[in-house]
Amino acid sequence: MRTPSGHLVYGMAAVYPSAAALYEAAKRVRDAGFKRWDVYSPFPIHGMDEAMGLGKSWLSAAVLGGGITGFITAMTLEFGPSWFIYPLIVHGKPTDWRTVPAFFPIMFELTVLFAAFTAFFAMLIMNGLPRWYHPIFNWERFGRATNDGFFLAIEARDPRFTEMEARELLEQTGGQHITLVHED
C-alpha cells in the first residue's frame, strides 16, 4: 500500500487525549480483531497488556533453558575431568559424589551467567532490536510520545487492515489527528 505521494504505508495512527482513552481504544482495537498494532505513551499504563490481549511472554522459558544449559555446562566441565578423565587422589580426598559441594559455586555462577546472557539476547530478539529507526518516527506528532502524547498505531501489514476500516475504528474510539504513517 502506498500514500498518494508514493511512499510505502507503515500504518494508520491516532492521538488520544488521555491514558484512559488510549486504554479503552486498545480494548476496542483488540476486539475488532487486529493483530499487528501497538500503543505508545510517556509512561506505563496499568492493565494495558490485558487490554491489548497480550499473553505471557516466552522470555521466562528461554531464561530457564539458558540456566539449565549453564548448569549442565558447569557439571560437564567440573565432573568430567575430575571424575572420569583425570581422577587424581590427593591426600586421600575422594573423587566421587562427596566432592560435589566444592563445585557448587561454579555451578551457580555458570547458571546465572548463561541465564543472564539468554535473557539479554532473547529480549533483543523479541523486540526486533537493534532497529535504528522506526517508521512511526516519520509522523511529526509522535515527538510528543515521550512528553504528553498517547498514540495508537495499526500496522498496514495486519491481515485485517484496510484504510477505511482502520480510519473508522480510530474515529469511533475517539482518536484525533488520524494519519497514514509512511515507511520511508
Oligomer: single chain
- List the secondary-structure elements in sequence, H or E: EHEHHHEHE
Return the structural class. Answer: alpha+beta
- The tally of helices reads 5
Can you describe what's shown?
The chain is α+β, with helices and mostly antiparallel strands. Helix content is 45%, strand content 14%. The chain contains five helices and four strands, in the order βαβαααβαβ. The chain has helices spanning 19-31, 48-52, 59-85, 100-126, 163-172; strands spanning 9-16, 37-40, 150-155, 176-182. It has a four-stranded antiparallel beta sheet, with helices on one face. The longest helix has 27 residues, at 59-85. The mean pLDDT is 91.
Please name the defining characteristics of this protein:
184 residues; four-stranded antiparallel β-sheet; 5 helices
What is the strand and helix layout of this fold?
Elements: E1 9-16, H1 19-31, E2 37-40, H2 48-52, H3 59-85, H4 100-126, E3 150-155, H5 163-172, E4 176-182
Antiparallel strand pairs: 1-3, 1-4, 2-3
Helix pairs in contact: 3-4
Summary, kept brief:
The protein is α+β, with helices and mostly antiparallel strands. It has 5 helices and 4 strands.
